[in-house]
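Quick one, T. Sequence first:
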Amino acid sequence: MTAYHADSSDLAEKEVLTWDQFGTAQEELAQQIADSGFHPEVLIAIARGGMIPGAALTYSLGVKLTDAINVEFYTDVNETLADPVLLAPMLDTEYIKGRRILVVDDVADSGRTLALVLKLLRGFCAEVRSAVLYTKPRTVVKPDYQWKTVDSWIVFPWSAKPPVTAN
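Structure tokens:
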């Protein structure tokens, strides 16, 4: 399965996150989490967008146990499936039972992906909290931790260019 790249070059208004800004964002997000007194035992990234922020937060928070849950929702710039869909491989829920979990994603746009994952995990874990780099005003789920709120398309440094192909 080939990963899709959304081309936002024709959008006049967009939020562009640079690698340098990302470094600052994840440090500030980690500080919010630490200052709240929440100490996650496991960090679960929502793939694919939450994997890089999740990896950065595992180091900033000193969390060694990590995993990912695969969800597909966006199909193009501002285009989604009817509902978020869980993709294989599925998360191993046995080892997260009774633990404090931090779920990480890049953005809570509609919030439907985050809502799906939180609902799924709350049945297994002692406590589940969520952290995102960005929220949008229309999100149906307010994350526990966020770096910034915007109302435009977001270009992340890890997905700003199309996938590399053979020459």
